[in-house]
Amino acid sequence: MKKVELLAPARNIKAIKAALKYADSIYFGVKKLNMRMRSENFELRDLNKTVDFCHKNEIKVYLTTNILVYDKELSLLREVIERSKGAGVDAIIVHDFAAIEIAKEIDIPFHVSTQCNVSNSLAARFYEKLGAERIILARELSLEKIKEIKRNLIKTETERCVHP
């Protein structure tokens, strides 16, 4: 049986250090491209240093770009994804099809955000055909529905958000 990967959100380096004991990976966003714009976020200039710190501590890094992207933000989105690949980010968490397209062009793995509300096998297979490495399933799904979706995927991993 495959080991469960425990992910933790991080809004700063202090949160990453706290997660080191428990998490296998962390996810965070950078200013302007993070759904949690009002909370503390990482600066793009700190990406290399942050990824290096995590990888030295055997923690995977996923960068969120799970916001609505408008035309005026496409160049920033491309820059963030390109710099993420250069920094060694393990995957990009996407919401917008533009982010998927850019991730595919740049050849960086992408995970489909829970914001996409994937709640059935047809939608999951759609994202699998696009090349998603992982799909973060809709939060409303029961364990039985998750199992059904998983049975219908060939190679794409699934993820489930769990809140205390």
From TrEMBL:
Q: Would I find Endoplasmic reticulum among this entry's keywords?
A: no
Q: Which biological processes are named by the entry's GO terms? A: proteolysis
Q: Name one Pfam family in it.
A: Peptidase_U32
Q: Name the keywords, alphabetized.
A: Hydrolase, Protease
Which molecular function GO terms apply here?
A: peptidase activity
| Record-stated family | Belongs to the peptidase U32 family.
PANTHER family in the record, alphabetically?
Answer: PEPTIDASE U32 FAMILY, TRNA HYDROXYLATION PROTEIN P
Name this protein carries in UniProt: Peptidase U32 collagenase domain-containing protein
Q: Which organism is this protein's natural source?
A: marine sediment metagenome
